[in-house]
Amino acid sequence: MKLNLTNKNAIVCASSQGLGKAAAIDLASEGVNLVICSRDQNKINKAREEILKKTNNSVKVIALEIDLDSADDINTLFSKAQDELGSVDILINNNGGPPPSTFEQLSDEDWQGAFNSTMMSCLRLSKLVLPKMKENNWGRIINISSVSVKTPVNGLFLSNSLRMGVLGWAKALADEVAPFGITVNTVCPGYTKTERVEAILESQSSASGLKKEDIEENIAQGIPMKRVGEAEDLSGLITFLASEKANYMTGLAVQVDGGSARTFY
Questions:
Q1: Residue 142: helix, strand or coil by DSSP?
Q2: What is the CATH number of domain 9-192+232-256?
C-alpha cells in the first residue's frame, strides 16, 4: 500500500518511549521527517538514535527537551520545528496520562494540572500548526487518547473526565477544518504494554495486594484477544490516518483494544 508520506514533516509529542516512540518509528519508516520531544534530553536522544538506525538515516530527526505542560516550551517546539523542517504536515498530540487515584484524593490543583497537561497541550500545538496546514490545503492532527473515552477505566478519574473534553474538541475542530483538507482524528489504545500501564498496574497491585503479573493476566483474560496490546498495535493505525489513504476519514475516535470496549460506536 502506497501511503505517500515520503518527505512529509511531523511533530510527535512525548516520543521518548511507549506509544509516542512507536508512532515516531512507524512514521519515519514511511519517509516522514520528525521533530520528537520529551522532558528528558537523554531519553529523547536515545529515541532519535534508534529511529535513525531503523531507517538507515533516511529521514531527518530533531530531538528536543520540551515540557508539554509549558506554553513557552510548546512555542519553542513549534518554532524549532519550523526552522528545521519547514511546514508541519502532521501533528501527533500525546502527553503522559494523569495519574490514577480515587475521586476523593483529588484536589483542585490536581484537576487544574491535569487539564493543562491533557487538554491544553493539544489545543496550543494544534492552534500553532493550523495556519500553515490551511495554506497548504493538507494536514493531519492525530490525538493519542485512551479507550477510557469509550468506557471508563476504574481509578482513572482525571483521564476519564479530561480525555472526553479532548474528544469533544477534536470532533468540533474536525468539522471546522475539513474544508481545508485537514483531518482530525483520535486513537484510543486499551491496555498496552507501556511505562504508563506499568505504573497503573503497580498502583493496583499496591491497593489490592495482588501480584502485578496476576493483575495483568486477569486483564488479558477480559480482552477478547486474550492479550495486552503492544505499542506497535497502535502505531500502524496512526500512520494510516496520517496518510493519503485516509483523506476522507475525520472526526473519528478509533479504539485499538483487542475488542475490550463493549460499545457500538
A1: strand
A2: 3.40.50.720
Burial pattern 96-108, b for ≥16 Cβ within 10 A else e, equals bbbbbeeeeebee
Report the SS3 class of residue 38: strand
Give the pLDDT score at 133: 98
Q: Give the contacts of 133 (CB within 8 A, at least 6 positions apart).
A: 87, 88, 89, 139, 177, 180, 182
Nearest Cα residue to 39 out of 11, 22, 21, 64 = 64
Domain ranges of the chain: 9-192+232-256, 195-228
User: 1-24, pLDDT tens digit by residue?
Assistant: 789 999 999 999 999 999 999 999
Q: What span, in angstroms and rounded, lies between the C-alpha atoms of 72 and 65?
A: 12
The DSSP output letter for 14 is S
Q: Are 164 and 121 in contact (CB under 8 A)?
A: no
Neighbours of 62 (CB within 10 A): 19
pLDDT of 197 strictly over 80: no
What number is the average pLDDT over the span 129-156? Answer: 94
At residue 21, the pLDDT reads 97
Burial degree of 72 (CB within 10 A; 0-12, 13-18, 19+): exposed
Q: Which pTM was predicted?
A: 0.93
What is the model's pLDDT at position 202? 85
Query: What Å distances lie between residue 223 and 101, 148, 188, 211, 228, CA to CA?
Result: 23, 15, 15, 19, 8
Q: Is the pLDDT of residue 200 over 80?
A: no
Task: Give the contacts of 53 (CB within 8 A, at least 6 positions apart).
Answer: none
Q: How confident is the model at residue 152 (pLDDT cuts 50, 70, 90)?
A: confident
Residue 31, burial from CB neighbour count under 10 angstroms (0-12, 13-18, 19+): middle
Residue 205 near residue 211, CB atoms below 8 Å: yes
